[in-house]
Design a protein that fits this description.
Blueprint: E1 12-31, E2 37-57, E3 62-64, H1 77-89, E4 94-100, H2 111-127, H3 133-141, H4 147-152, E5 156-159, E6 164-167, E7 174-179, H5 186-190, H6 204-209, H7 222-228, H8 230-239, E8 247-248, E9 255-259, H9 262-269, E10 277-282
Parallel strand pairs: 3-4
Antiparallel strand pairs: 1-2, 2-4, 2-5, 5-6, 7-9, 7-10, 8-9
Helix pairs in contact: 1-2, 7-8
């Protein structure tokens, strides 16, 4: 159990980013007896973020001060992450937590998981608990399979259920990300009997040796999501007119494509149909809060 330091940071941490991620590929390699799927993927961090604000409390209470429609506080990954860190460290501190929610829910870009990871990183700093990164990742895994990579803090090749992480170097990139205003429940994709669950195993070296890393592999969840959710299929078809390697991230609904520079990406965005939301984003090489651990 960690101990509280004698010298604490200031009681407030504001403007803490929770960046989104893209899955450059996603292969489902098996299914465990407990129902979880094993996979391989590469996580690319991008500069599209929710923003969280924290105020340390002395009474141990965890209070989400922002109302998020459809997400009760007690089930919010942010609140659960704060309570998990309290339990792991025995700290007597609590926190008020406000969230500027920008990232779409059910978009496949890791918004809720990233919020939870930022909560772990920020509160570990604010409370002075000094939990090692590996332990924060373990706590994060108990909240969701995508949480550890955001705590890991850099682009990564992932295996297992997403928690076995190896750093990868990726070129600076610009992406167009489209959200077709459709919510895709992850469980609806992974539970579908048509899902491919036996993709061949790759190794990090296979990905590293690929000349065009953004054309490597495929997303095994994409065929199911596009069959079930028509707007995802239409957005992907539209984006492929501008990039043959456009694909879906995570279990959807967002689709994305890489472009050589910001100007090329902006030209595509200018043509985006009005019924969808889109954004030009830049790659990140590390999490903005990586300095905290």
């Amino acid at each position: 159990m960690s101990t509280i330091t004698t010298t604490l940071p200031p009681a407030d941490l504001r403007d803490c980013p929770a960046p989104a991620k893209l899955n450059l590929f996603l292969h489902v390699t098996g299914r465990r007896p407990d129902g979880y799927h094993t996979l391989q993927t590469v996580f690319q961090l991008i500069d599209w973020s929710d923003t969280l604000h924290f105020h340390r409390r002395d009474d141990g209470a965890i209070v989400r001060t922002t109302d998020i429609p459809g997400v009760p506080a007690d089930t919010d990954l942010v609140v659960r992450a704060a309570r998990a860190l309290q339990q792991a460290t025995g700290t007597q501190f609590g926190a008020d937590i406000a969230i500027d929610k920008i990232l779409p829910m059910g978009g496949g870009i890791g918004g809720g998981s990233s919020d939870a990871a930022t909560t772990l990183l920020a509160l570990d700093h604010l409370w002075g608990t000094r939990v090692p990164r590996e332990e924060l990742m373990r706590i994060g895994l108990g909240l969701g399979a995508d949480v550890p990579v955001f705590v890991f803090g850099q682009n990564a090749f992932a295996e297992g259920v997403g928690e076995e992480l190896s750093p990868v170097d990726l070129p600076e990139s610009w992406f167009v990300v489209i959200h077709p205003r459709q919510h895709v429940p992850t469980a609806a994709i992974f539970s579908d009997e048509r899902l491919t669950r036996n993709s061949p195993i790759s190794i990090v070296a296979d990905f590293a040796a690929c000349t065009n890393k953004f054309a490597f592999g495929r997303n095994d969840l994409q065929a199911i999501a596009t069959a079930k959710f028509g707007e995802v299929a239409r957005a992907l078809e539209w984006l492929r007119h501008y990039s043959p390697h456009a694909r879906m991230t995570g279990s959807g609904a967002c689709v994305f494509a890489r472009f050589e520079d910001e100007q090329a990406a902006q030209r595509v965005m200018e043509r985006l149909p009005s019924e969808w939301d889109g954004r030009v984003v830049k790659s990140l090489s590390q999490h903005p809060l990586a300095r905290f651990v």
